[in-house]
Structure formats: C-alpha cells, structure tokens
Design goal:
mainly alpha, two-stranded antiparallel ribbon, disordered N terminus
Amino acid sequence: MATARAKGATVCAQHHVPRSQCPPSAGHPRSVRFRDDDWAAAEDLARARNTDAGPLIISAAQAVLGYARCYRCRPEDPPVPLRCGDLTGRTLAEAITEAEEQAVSQHPAHEPVWLGAEPAPVGDRDIDATLEHLRAQVRQVRAGGAPAHVPPPPASAVFREPKAART
C-alpha cells in the first residue's frame, strides 16, 4: 500500500497513513522520560490500586489538561470538563479517581464534574460578608500588624463534599 507523505508529517507504521489521520485510540507508543524514583513511586501507587502506571499517568495528564474521560464513551466523543474544587483532606489521585467515577455515572449525558469538593452555593450576602471580612483583616494589618485572633470566614468559604464521598 503506497501512501503519500506530506512534508514534515510522520507516517504511522501501524496504519500506513499520516499520524494525523489515525484514530485517537490507535495506541501509538510514545516515549516519556521519568526519574527512576518518580517511576518507582508511580508503580507503587499503581500496584496499590491494582493497576499499572500507564492509566495512572494518563488520568493525571488529563486532569492537568482540564478534563476527564468516561471509559464508557467512544474514543471520538468529547472529554468531560473538570471544575477545580477543594482538595483538602484527600490526595490528588483520590480526587481524580472520584472525578472519573462522576463522569462515568453521568454517561451518556455528561456535565462538567468537580475535581475535589464542590463549593457551597454563594448568595450576594455571602459575597458581601466575605469581602467585608477580608477588608477588615487588611485594615488590621495596615494599622499595626497581624491580628492576634483571626475570626472564622463567613459561610461562603465552606465547601460541600462530592456526591460520591457522601454515599
């Protein structure tokens, strides 16, 4: 099978077409360099989750890119957007796993999912109270140093747990 090769385009040895024409799920091998200790840590975490390092790294890369993938969707379907939430009390890997589970539970009608805890709904009064709280702290610092006791922030700074964590 003869293929035309565009200038600068790489041809897929597996499909014998320019790589830009290969399906996204073609599984072309790619080189990724890791420090030995980082790779060992990734393998340890993957082993603890009963998988290998590949899916762990792919999920982390997708989270950095701002989305998660639903494994039940076709490869050409769009990814599920991530919204950044509060990660307090959990690891990033746990938050990514929860976000992926949320995406799968919505299949096929996907909405953006939270990476971490979803912020509580904020009303106009909460925003005004938060701003006033911050202004008061700034006035205290300008007047002579940090306050001895910082009052708790208003309710607008409270986060809700994701639905998966509540059940």
